[in-house]
Amino acid sequence: MPPSRPYLSNRTAAALAAGIGLGLVVAGLMIVIWWTVTQKDRAVRVVRDDPALETLLASAPAIRLNAGERPVTIISPRAATALEQWLGADAAELATHGREVRAIIVPSGHGGASEEATVVQLWQGRDIGLLRQWLSMRAEHWTAVGIEPVSSSETRMATLAEAAGLRRSVLQRLSRPADDNRWPLVIWRDGAGQLAVCYCHTPKAVAEARLALGLKGASAPVVAVPTPPAPIRTAPATAEAETTDSYPRLGDMPAPEPSATHPYGEVSETHTRPAPVLPGDAAPVAPSPQKAAPRPASRPARPARAPRTDVNTAAPKAEKDAESLFY
Prior knowledge:
The structure is a single chain. The protein is an alpha+beta fold. It has a domain at 44-213: Glutaredoxin (3-Layer(aba) Sandwich). It contains eight helices and eight strands. The chain has helices spanning 10-39, 50-59, 83-86, 89-96, 112-125, 128-135, 154-173, 203-213, and strands spanning 44-46, 63-64, 70-76, 99-105, 185-189, 195-199, 261-262, 265-266. A hairpin with a 2-residue loop joins β7 and β8 (265-266). α2 (50-59) packs antiparallel against α7 (154-173) and α5 (112-125) crosses α7. Residues 222-327 are annotated as: Disordered. The chain crosses the membrane at residues 12-35. Keywords: Membrane, Transmembrane, Transmembrane helix.
């Protein structure tokens, strides 16, 4: 009985293994391309570690803008571009949908002493009036007038460290680097009960989050229209002030004061400062007036030249002398 042949030869097994490996490589490459194109830059994502993040947000001193059942938490530094929109018109529309808007302002790390003092004040007092006052001004124009600086007490310094720690912890729960500047973060529960987060730093991300939350209002922030200034009333122009040119006219120059005479000409006054009179000095003697040097008499005017007559430029004619005839 001949020996039984193996089910697969070595060459066939090698080809099959190579095909499986090539298929895995192609599948992995397709997954990477799909992730890069569709998921990497996607603004709205589902949080994986949602219980830890939700517990962290519940312990933070948030400012509740309205009452509601389903919270929408907005975490951001003040300098974020879309923060005014989310805490303005979008918060009002979310309130009509029964959602509670919670604002947590964190330090950006480069906002200066004014930003840090205001963040500490909001964390300690949760003053919604202070938040609205801060939002009414540009971030770079805020000076935190009347707010106690952070360095004034250890309690305020500890509050600032707690706010910075919350910022780092939230980014860590979302698997983001500590220097991620995609603010604000909008976190909510979707219709399926999953915790979703939006990196709303671009108009496209804001539009995607608004669609997921069911917002239909205008996406632009509400900006108050400034009232035009009152016209300035000027006094009616008099006849003397009316001129033909558009430049202002100066008044008449004051008449020059009479100047003292000087041997070498007319000068205004002496340029030397008189020496101060000290106790014990003799009374100053008034200098005798100097006579002006006589000016040389003017030379007599030269007589005018007589007009030049025409000169005969023709050659002289030869004439015979009468006396030469006798020699």
